[in-house]
Design a protein that fits this description.
This protein has 3 domains: 208 residues, FAD/NAD(P)-binding domain (3-Layer(bba) Sandwich), CATH 3.50.50.60; 114 residues, FAD/NAD(P)-binding domain, CATH 3.50.50.60; 107 residues, Enolase-like, domain 1 (2-Layer Sandwich), CATH 3.30.390. The chain has 14 helices and 24 strands. Strands 1, 2, 3, 4, 5, 6 and 18 form a 7-stranded mixed beta sheet that branches. The chain has a 5-stranded antiparallel beta sheet with strand order 20-21-24-23-22, sandwiched between helices. A 4-stranded parallel beta sheet has the order 10-9-8-14. α1 runs parallel beside α9. The termini are far apart.
Protein backbone atom coordinates (compact mmCIF):
# COMPACT_ATOMS: atom_id res chain seq x y z
CA UNK A 1 0.00 0.00 0.00
CA UNK A 2 1.30 3.50 -0.80
CA UNK A 3 2.17 5.75 2.11
CA UNK A 4 -0.30 8.57 2.73
CA UNK A 5 0.25 12.13 3.92
CA UNK A 6 -1.94 15.22 4.08
CA UNK A 7 -0.89 18.67 2.84
CA UNK A 8 -2.47 22.06 2.51
CA UNK A 9 -1.04 22.36 -0.99
CA UNK A 10 0.70 20.15 -3.51
CA UNK A 11 2.46 21.91 -6.38
CA UNK A 12 3.10 19.87 -9.53
CA UNK A 13 6.03 21.26 -11.50
CA UNK A 14 9.13 23.10 -10.29
CA UNK A 15 9.58 25.96 -12.71
CA UNK A 16 9.49 29.69 -12.11
CA UNK A 17 5.80 30.08 -11.40
CA UNK A 18 5.26 26.82 -9.53
CA UNK A 19 8.15 27.34 -7.11
CA UNK A 20 6.95 30.86 -6.28
CA UNK A 21 3.53 29.44 -5.33
CA UNK A 22 5.15 26.78 -3.14
CA UNK A 23 7.44 29.26 -1.35
CA UNK A 24 4.70 31.83 -0.76
CA UNK A 25 2.27 29.34 0.74
CA UNK A 26 4.95 27.66 2.86
CA UNK A 27 6.01 31.09 4.08
CA UNK A 28 2.46 31.67 5.27
CA UNK A 29 2.63 28.53 7.40
CA UNK A 30 0.97 26.10 5.05
CA UNK A 31 2.17 22.51 4.78
CA UNK A 32 3.37 22.36 1.16
CA UNK A 33 4.87 19.69 -1.08
CA UNK A 34 6.25 20.15 -4.58
CA UNK A 35 6.97 17.44 -7.14
CA UNK A 36 8.70 17.25 -10.50
CA UNK A 37 9.91 14.36 -12.63
CA UNK A 38 12.77 16.51 -13.93
CA UNK A 39 15.49 18.43 -12.04
CA UNK A 40 14.10 21.44 -10.22
CA UNK A 41 14.27 24.77 -12.01
CA UNK A 42 11.93 24.38 -14.96
CA UNK A 43 12.32 24.94 -18.68
CA UNK A 44 13.44 28.58 -18.57
CA UNK A 45 16.37 28.10 -16.21
CA UNK A 46 17.51 24.66 -17.35
CA UNK A 47 16.29 23.94 -20.88
CA UNK A 48 15.27 27.25 -22.45
CA UNK A 49 15.63 30.99 -21.95
CA UNK A 50 18.66 31.16 -19.67
CA UNK A 51 21.02 28.59 -21.23
CA UNK A 52 19.98 29.79 -24.69
CA UNK A 53 20.88 33.38 -23.82
CA UNK A 54 24.32 32.21 -22.62
CA UNK A 55 24.90 30.76 -26.08
CA UNK A 56 23.55 33.93 -27.67
CA UNK A 57 25.99 35.95 -25.57
CA UNK A 58 28.99 34.14 -27.02
CA UNK A 59 27.76 34.45 -30.59
CA UNK A 60 26.89 38.11 -29.96
CA UNK A 61 30.49 38.80 -28.99
CA UNK A 62 31.68 37.07 -32.15
CA UNK A 63 29.16 38.85 -34.35
CA UNK A 64 30.03 42.24 -32.86
CA UNK A 65 33.73 41.74 -33.54
CA UNK A 66 33.05 40.61 -37.09
CA UNK A 67 30.85 43.64 -37.75
CA UNK A 68 33.60 45.91 -36.45
CA UNK A 69 36.33 44.29 -38.54
CA UNK A 70 38.01 47.04 -40.54
CA UNK A 71 36.37 49.64 -38.32
CA UNK A 72 39.12 49.82 -35.76
CA UNK A 73 39.09 46.13 -34.80
CA UNK A 74 41.51 43.58 -36.21
CA UNK A 75 39.41 40.43 -36.02
CA UNK A 76 41.17 37.37 -37.42
CA UNK A 77 40.25 33.69 -37.24
CA UNK A 78 37.62 34.17 -34.55
CA UNK A 79 35.43 31.15 -33.87
CA UNK A 80 33.22 29.51 -31.29
CA UNK A 81 34.56 26.52 -29.37
CA UNK A 82 31.36 24.54 -28.90
CA UNK A 83 32.78 22.31 -26.15
CA UNK A 84 33.91 25.33 -24.14
CA UNK A 85 30.58 27.06 -24.76
CA UNK A 86 28.66 24.04 -23.42
CA UNK A 87 30.91 23.95 -20.38
CA UNK A 88 30.23 27.65 -19.80
CA UNK A 89 26.48 27.03 -20.07
CA UNK A 90 26.74 24.26 -17.49
CA UNK A 91 28.31 26.63 -14.95
CA UNK A 92 24.75 27.95 -14.65
CA UNK A 93 22.49 24.98 -15.44
CA UNK A 94 24.37 22.38 -13.36
CA UNK A 95 24.03 24.31 -10.11
CA UNK A 96 20.48 25.58 -10.55
CA UNK A 97 18.53 22.42 -9.55
CA UNK A 98 20.35 22.21 -6.23
CA UNK A 99 19.88 25.92 -5.57
CA UNK A 100 16.17 25.78 -6.36
CA UNK A 101 15.52 22.63 -4.35
CA UNK A 102 17.65 23.82 -1.45
CA UNK A 103 15.80 27.11 -1.37
CA UNK A 104 12.45 25.33 -1.29
CA UNK A 105 13.54 23.06 1.53
CA UNK A 106 14.84 26.04 3.48
CA UNK A 107 11.40 27.61 3.06
CA UNK A 108 9.84 24.50 4.57
CA UNK A 109 8.57 22.89 1.37
CA UNK A 110 8.66 19.08 1.11
CA UNK A 111 10.45 18.27 -2.16
CA UNK A 112 9.43 15.15 -4.06
CA UNK A 113 10.79 13.60 -7.26
CA UNK A 114 8.78 11.55 -9.70
CA UNK A 115 5.78 11.63 -11.99
CA UNK A 116 2.61 12.87 -10.34
CA UNK A 117 -0.92 11.93 -11.31
CA UNK A 118 -4.38 12.17 -9.80
CA UNK A 119 -5.98 9.00 -8.46
CA UNK A 120 -9.08 10.87 -7.25
CA UNK A 121 -10.18 14.53 -7.20
CA UNK A 122 -8.23 15.17 -3.99
CA UNK A 123 -5.48 12.55 -4.04
CA UNK A 124 -2.19 12.75 -5.97
CA UNK A 125 0.17 9.80 -6.31
CA UNK A 126 3.92 10.17 -6.73
CA UNK A 127 5.56 6.79 -7.08
CA UNK A 128 4.58 4.76 -3.99
CA UNK A 129 3.49 7.87 -2.09
CA UNK A 130 -0.05 9.21 -1.92
CA UNK A 131 -0.54 12.83 -0.92
CA UNK A 132 -3.88 14.25 0.15
CA UNK A 133 -3.90 18.02 -0.44
CA UNK A 134 -6.59 20.57 0.21
CA UNK A 135 -5.42 22.37 -2.92
CA UNK A 136 -3.31 21.52 -5.97
CA UNK A 137 -1.41 23.98 -8.14
CA UNK A 138 -0.34 22.73 -11.59
CA UNK A 139 2.62 24.36 -13.27
CA UNK A 140 3.97 21.62 -15.54
CA UNK A 141 4.82 23.91 -18.45
CA UNK A 142 4.92 22.76 -22.07
CA UNK A 143 6.52 20.12 -24.27
CA UNK A 144 7.30 19.93 -28.01
CA UNK A 145 4.13 19.44 -30.04
CA UNK A 146 3.48 16.06 -31.62
CA UNK A 147 3.80 16.55 -35.38
CA UNK A 148 2.45 13.21 -36.60
CA UNK A 149 4.96 12.83 -39.42
CA UNK A 150 6.98 9.74 -40.41
CA UNK A 151 10.37 9.72 -38.71
CA UNK A 152 9.28 12.11 -35.96
CA UNK A 153 11.35 10.10 -33.48
CA UNK A 154 14.48 11.20 -35.36
CA UNK A 155 13.94 14.83 -34.38
CA UNK A 156 15.97 16.30 -31.56
CA UNK A 157 14.27 18.73 -29.20
CA UNK A 158 15.43 22.17 -28.15
CA UNK A 159 16.50 20.59 -24.85
CA UNK A 160 18.73 18.13 -26.69
CA UNK A 161 20.14 20.88 -28.90
CA UNK A 162 21.21 22.79 -25.79
CA UNK A 163 23.08 19.71 -24.61
CA UNK A 164 24.85 18.69 -27.82
CA UNK A 165 28.41 17.59 -27.11
CA UNK A 166 29.41 18.56 -30.65
CA UNK A 167 27.71 20.91 -33.09
CA UNK A 168 26.46 19.11 -36.22
CA UNK A 169 27.76 20.55 -39.47
CA UNK A 170 24.42 20.46 -41.32
CA UNK A 171 21.30 21.28 -39.32
CA UNK A 172 17.67 21.57 -40.37
CA UNK A 173 14.98 23.20 -38.22
CA UNK A 174 11.33 22.22 -38.53
CA UNK A 175 9.13 25.27 -37.97
CA UNK A 176 9.72 28.99 -38.29
CA UNK A 177 9.19 30.24 -34.76
CA UNK A 178 11.27 31.47 -31.82
CA UNK A 179 13.26 28.27 -31.31
CA UNK A 180 14.22 27.76 -34.93
CA UNK A 181 15.34 31.33 -35.59
CA UNK A 182 17.24 31.72 -32.34
CA UNK A 183 18.99 28.37 -32.58
CA UNK A 184 19.68 28.77 -36.31
CA UNK A 185 21.50 32.05 -35.58
CA UNK A 186 23.48 30.35 -32.81
CA UNK A 187 24.37 27.33 -34.94
CA UNK A 188 25.46 29.31 -37.98
CA UNK A 189 27.67 31.68 -36.00
CA UNK A 190 29.05 28.76 -34.01
CA UNK A 191 30.34 27.14 -37.19
CA UNK A 192 27.63 24.95 -38.74
CA UNK A 193 28.19 25.15 -42.49
CA UNK A 194 24.61 24.45 -43.61
CA UNK A 195 21.64 25.65 -41.59
CA UNK A 196 18.09 25.47 -42.95
CA UNK A 197 14.72 26.55 -41.56
CA UNK A 198 11.55 24.99 -43.00
CA UNK A 199 8.32 26.85 -42.24
CA UNK A 200 5.01 25.57 -43.55
CA UNK A 201 3.21 28.93 -43.46
CA UNK A 202 3.41 31.87 -45.83
CA UNK A 203 5.45 33.86 -43.29
CA UNK A 204 7.65 32.76 -40.38
CA UNK A 205 7.32 34.30 -36.91
CA UNK A 206 3.64 35.10 -37.55
CA UNK A 207 3.17 36.70 -34.12
CA UNK A 208 5.52 39.55 -35.08
CA UNK A 209 5.23 42.52 -37.41
CA UNK A 210 5.53 41.32 -41.03
CA UNK A 211 7.69 44.24 -42.17
CA UNK A 212 10.24 43.63 -39.43
CA UNK A 213 10.07 39.86 -39.91
CA UNK A 214 10.91 40.41 -43.57
CA UNK A 215 13.97 42.39 -42.53
CA UNK A 216 15.01 39.66 -40.07
CA UNK A 217 14.60 36.98 -42.75
CA UNK A 218 16.88 39.04 -44.99
CA UNK A 219 19.47 39.37 -42.21
CA UNK A 220 19.17 35.65 -41.44
CA UNK A 221 19.74 34.69 -45.06
CA UNK A 222 22.75 37.02 -45.28
CA UNK A 223 24.12 35.19 -42.24
CA UNK A 224 24.04 32.02 -44.32
CA UNK A 225 20.83 30.42 -43.04
CA UNK A 226 18.54 29.05 -45.75
CA UNK A 227 15.03 30.13 -44.73
CA UNK A 228 12.41 28.30 -46.79
CA UNK A 229 8.67 29.05 -46.73
CA UNK A 230 6.12 27.84 -47.42
CA UNK A 231 7.79 24.46 -47.02
CA UNK A 232 6.00 21.69 -45.14
CA UNK A 233 8.11 18.87 -43.72
CA UNK A 234 6.43 15.57 -44.69
CA UNK A 235 8.84 13.16 -43.05
CA UNK A 236 12.36 12.30 -41.98
CA UNK A 237 14.38 9.19 -42.80
CA UNK A 238 17.74 7.98 -41.55
CA UNK A 239 20.42 7.35 -44.15
CA UNK A 240 23.64 5.91 -42.85
CA UNK A 241 25.10 8.68 -40.65
CA UNK A 242 22.80 11.37 -42.05
CA UNK A 243 19.10 12.22 -42.30
CA UNK A 244 16.88 13.09 -45.22
CA UNK A 245 14.13 15.65 -44.75
CA UNK A 246 11.28 15.39 -47.26
CA UNK A 247 9.46 18.65 -47.92
CA UNK A 248 6.43 19.84 -49.88
CA UNK A 249 6.68 23.27 -51.52
CA UNK A 250 4.54 25.20 -54.03
CA UNK A 251 7.11 24.19 -56.67
CA UNK A 252 6.75 20.50 -55.81
CA UNK A 253 8.44 17.98 -53.51
CA UNK A 254 11.99 18.58 -52.31
CA UNK A 255 14.46 16.96 -49.93
CA UNK A 256 17.50 17.90 -47.89
CA UNK A 257 20.27 15.79 -46.37
CA UNK A 258 21.58 16.92 -43.00
CA UNK A 259 23.28 15.71 -39.82
CA UNK A 260 20.56 16.75 -37.35
CA UNK A 261 16.91 17.80 -37.52
CA UNK A 262 15.63 20.02 -34.72
CA UNK A 263 12.01 20.32 -33.58
CA UNK A 264 11.08 24.00 -33.62
CA UNK A 265 7.44 23.62 -34.62
CA UNK A 266 5.74 24.74 -31.45
CA UNK A 267 5.00 23.51 -27.95
CA UNK A 268 1.84 22.33 -26.20
CA UNK A 269 0.80 22.06 -22.53
CA UNK A 270 2.56 19.18 -20.77
CA UNK A 271 -0.46 17.52 -19.17
CA UNK A 272 -0.53 14.00 -20.61
CA UNK A 273 0.52 12.11 -17.49
CA UNK A 274 -1.58 13.92 -14.89
CA UNK A 275 -4.85 12.00 -15.48
CA UNK A 276 -6.79 15.24 -15.16
CA UNK A 277 -10.10 13.56 -15.96
CA UNK A 278 -9.83 11.70 -12.65
CA UNK A 279 -9.73 15.05 -10.84
CA UNK A 280 -12.55 16.58 -12.92
CA UNK A 281 -10.13 19.19 -14.27
CA UNK A 282 -11.27 20.51 -17.63
CA UNK A 283 -8.56 21.14 -20.23
CA UNK A 284 -8.10 21.58 -23.96
CA UNK A 285 -5.36 22.04 -26.58
CA UNK A 286 -4.25 25.30 -24.93
CA UNK A 287 -4.14 23.87 -21.43
CA UNK A 288 -6.16 23.74 -18.22
CA UNK A 289 -9.31 25.84 -18.34
CA UNK A 290 -8.92 28.48 -15.63
CA UNK A 291 -10.81 31.55 -14.48
CA UNK A 292 -9.30 35.02 -14.19
CA UNK A 293 -8.33 33.96 -10.67
CA UNK A 294 -6.19 31.12 -12.07
CA UNK A 295 -8.60 28.58 -10.56
CA UNK A 296 -9.78 25.57 -12.53
CA UNK A 297 -13.26 26.24 -13.90
CA UNK A 298 -14.32 22.66 -13.10
CA UNK A 299 -12.50 21.83 -9.84
CA UNK A 300 -12.24 24.72 -7.36
CA UNK A 301 -9.45 22.98 -5.42
CA UNK A 302 -7.10 23.12 -8.43
CA UNK A 303 -5.15 26.14 -9.67
CA UNK A 304 -2.85 26.43 -12.67
CA UNK A 305 -0.58 29.05 -14.23
CA UNK A 306 2.00 29.40 -16.97
CA UNK A 307 2.35 27.45 -20.18
CA UNK A 308 -0.01 24.66 -19.10
CA UNK A 309 -2.91 27.04 -18.33
CA UNK A 310 -5.34 28.22 -21.00
CA UNK A 311 -5.09 32.01 -20.78
CA UNK A 312 -5.02 34.78 -23.41
CA UNK A 313 -1.45 35.76 -22.50
CA UNK A 314 1.64 34.55 -24.40
CA UNK A 315 3.60 31.64 -22.96
CA UNK A 316 6.53 33.51 -21.42
CA UNK A 317 8.39 33.11 -18.14
CA UNK A 318 7.42 36.56 -16.77
CA UNK A 319 3.79 35.76 -17.57
CA UNK A 320 4.07 32.52 -15.61
CA UNK A 321 5.47 34.43 -12.64
CA UNK A 322 2.68 37.02 -12.86
CA UNK A 323 -0.08 34.41 -13.08
CA UNK A 324 1.47 32.41 -10.24
CA UNK A 325 1.36 35.50 -8.03
CA UNK A 326 -2.39 35.80 -8.66
CA UNK A 327 -2.77 32.09 -7.89
CA UNK A 328 -0.96 32.14 -4.55
CA UNK A 329 -2.72 35.33 -3.45
CA UNK A 330 -6.05 33.58 -4.01
CA UNK A 331 -4.85 30.35 -2.42
CA UNK A 332 -3.81 32.17 0.73
CA UNK A 333 -7.02 34.22 0.80
CA UNK A 334 -8.97 30.97 0.23
CA UNK A 335 -11.22 32.96 -2.08
CA UNK A 336 -10.93 34.67 -5.46
CA UNK A 337 -9.57 37.95 -4.12
CA UNK A 338 -7.39 38.77 -7.15
CA UNK A 339 -7.90 38.51 -10.90
CA UNK A 340 -5.40 38.75 -13.72
CA UNK A 341 -5.23 42.13 -15.41
CA UNK A 342 -2.38 41.68 -17.86
CA UNK A 343 -0.21 44.73 -18.50
CA UNK A 344 1.36 45.20 -21.94
CA UNK A 345 3.64 42.16 -22.34
CA UNK A 346 6.85 42.48 -24.36
CA UNK A 347 7.99 39.45 -26.32
CA UNK A 348 11.43 39.00 -27.90
CA UNK A 349 13.11 36.78 -30.46
CA UNK A 350 16.75 36.72 -29.38
CA UNK A 351 18.30 36.53 -32.80
CA UNK A 352 21.08 38.95 -33.72
CA UNK A 353 19.78 41.54 -34.02
CA UNK A 354 16.79 40.81 -31.77
CA UNK A 355 13.18 41.29 -32.83
CA UNK A 356 10.35 42.16 -30.46
CA UNK A 357 6.83 43.39 -29.97
CA UNK A 358 4.55 44.76 -27.28
CA UNK A 359 0.87 45.49 -27.79
CA UNK A 360 -1.08 45.17 -31.02
CA UNK A 361 0.08 44.34 -34.51
CA UNK A 362 -0.88 46.89 -37.14
CA UNK A 363 -3.44 44.50 -38.63
CA UNK A 364 -4.94 43.83 -35.19
CA UNK A 365 -5.31 47.52 -34.44
CA UNK A 366 -7.09 48.13 -37.74
CA UNK A 367 -9.37 45.12 -37.21
CA UNK A 368 -10.39 46.70 -33.89
CA UNK A 369 -11.37 49.84 -35.76
CA UNK A 370 -8.60 52.02 -34.38
CA UNK A 371 -7.53 55.13 -36.22
CA UNK A 372 -3.77 54.94 -35.83
CA UNK A 373 -0.64 56.75 -36.85
CA UNK A 374 1.96 54.23 -38.03
CA UNK A 375 5.54 55.32 -37.38
CA UNK A 376 7.71 52.96 -39.43
CA UNK A 377 11.30 53.40 -40.48
CA UNK A 378 14.38 51.34 -41.20
CA UNK A 379 17.18 52.62 -38.98
CA UNK A 380 20.38 51.03 -40.23
CA UNK A 381 21.63 54.57 -40.88
CA UNK A 382 20.84 55.80 -37.35
CA UNK A 383 23.76 56.42 -35.03
CA UNK A 384 22.78 53.60 -32.64
CA UNK A 385 23.10 51.07 -35.46
CA UNK A 386 25.92 52.82 -37.29
CA UNK A 387 28.27 52.81 -34.31
CA UNK A 388 28.05 49.00 -34.02
CA UNK A 389 27.91 48.42 -37.79
CA UNK A 390 24.46 46.82 -37.73
CA UNK A 391 22.82 47.35 -41.09
CA UNK A 392 19.47 45.71 -40.30
CA UNK A 393 17.34 47.59 -37.80
CA UNK A 394 13.89 49.15 -37.83
CA UNK A 395 10.89 50.16 -35.75
CA UNK A 396 7.14 50.39 -36.14
CA UNK A 397 5.18 52.19 -33.42
CA UNK A 398 1.38 52.46 -33.51
CA UNK A 399 -0.21 55.53 -31.90
CA UNK A 400 -3.94 55.97 -31.40
CA UNK A 401 -4.81 59.31 -33.03
CA UNK A 402 -7.68 59.95 -30.63
CA UNK A 403 -5.76 59.50 -27.37
CA UNK A 404 -2.09 59.77 -28.30
CA UNK A 405 -1.53 56.41 -26.56
CA UNK A 406 0.90 53.86 -27.91
CA UNK A 407 -1.09 50.72 -28.75
CA UNK A 408 1.70 48.69 -30.30
CA UNK A 409 5.48 48.82 -30.65
CA UNK A 410 7.65 46.63 -32.84
CA UNK A 411 11.43 46.87 -32.82
CA UNK A 412 14.39 45.16 -34.40
CA UNK A 413 17.98 46.11 -33.87
CA UNK A 414 20.72 46.45 -31.27
CA UNK A 415 19.26 47.28 -27.86
CA UNK A 416 15.73 46.50 -29.01
CA UNK A 417 14.91 44.39 -25.95
CA UNK A 418 15.58 47.24 -23.51
CA UNK A 419 13.90 49.83 -25.73
CA UNK A 420 10.86 47.57 -25.81
CA UNK A 421 10.86 47.20 -22.02
CA UNK A 422 10.77 50.99 -21.67
CA UNK A 423 7.91 51.29 -24.15
CA UNK A 424 6.01 48.54 -22.30
CA UNK A 425 6.52 50.45 -19.05
CA UNK A 426 5.29 53.65 -20.69
CA UNK A 427 2.22 51.89 -22.10
CA UNK A 428 1.42 50.37 -18.72
CA UNK A 429 1.73 53.78 -17.07
CA UNK A 430 -0.54 55.36 -19.67
CA UNK A 431 2.12 57.73 -20.97
CA UNK A 432 1.26 59.29 -24.31
CA UNK A 433 3.64 59.47 -27.22
CA UNK A 434 4.09 63.17 -26.52
CA UNK A 435 5.10 62.46 -22.92
CA UNK A 436 7.81 60.13 -24.20
CA UNK A 437 8.97 62.78 -26.66
CA UNK A 438 9.24 65.21 -23.77
CA UNK A 439 11.44 62.86 -21.70
CA UNK A 440 15.18 63.49 -21.54
CA UNK A 441 17.28 60.33 -21.82
CA UNK A 442 21.00 59.81 -21.41
CA UNK A 443 22.65 60.33 -24.78
CA UNK A 444 23.94 58.55 -26.75
CA UNK A 445 22.01 55.48 -25.68
CA UNK A 446 19.46 53.16 -27.17
CA UNK A 447 16.76 54.74 -24.99
CA UNK A 448 17.52 58.17 -26.45
CA UNK A 449 16.11 56.91 -29.77
CA UNK A 450 12.62 56.40 -28.33
CA UNK A 451 11.48 59.99 -28.76
CA UNK A 452 12.16 59.72 -32.50
CA UNK A 453 10.20 56.49 -32.77
CA UNK A 454 6.89 57.70 -31.38
Amino acid sequence: MPSEESFDLVVIGAGTGATSVARACAGAGWKVAIVDSLPYGGTCALRGCDPKKMLVGATEALDWLRRMKGRGVRATDLEIDWTDLMAFKRTFTDVMPGRVEGGLEKAGVVTLHGTAHFVSPNVVRVGDREVHPRYVHIGTGARPATLGIPGEDLLITSTQFLNLEALPNRIAFVGGGFISFEFAHIARRAGASEVTIFHRGVRPLPAFDPDLVGLLVQRTRELGVDVRFPACVDGITARSSAFCVDVSTPAGPDSLECDAVVHGAGRVPDLDQLQLETANVEYGPRGIKVSDSMRSVSNPAVFSAGDCADTPAPNLTPVSAYEARIAFKNLLAEKDARQVDYPPIPSMVFTLPPLGRVGLLEEEARQQGMDIDVHFQKTGHWYSSLRVAETHSAYKVLVDKATGQIVGAHLMGPGAEEQLNLLALAMNAGLSANRIKAAIFAYPSYASDLGSMV
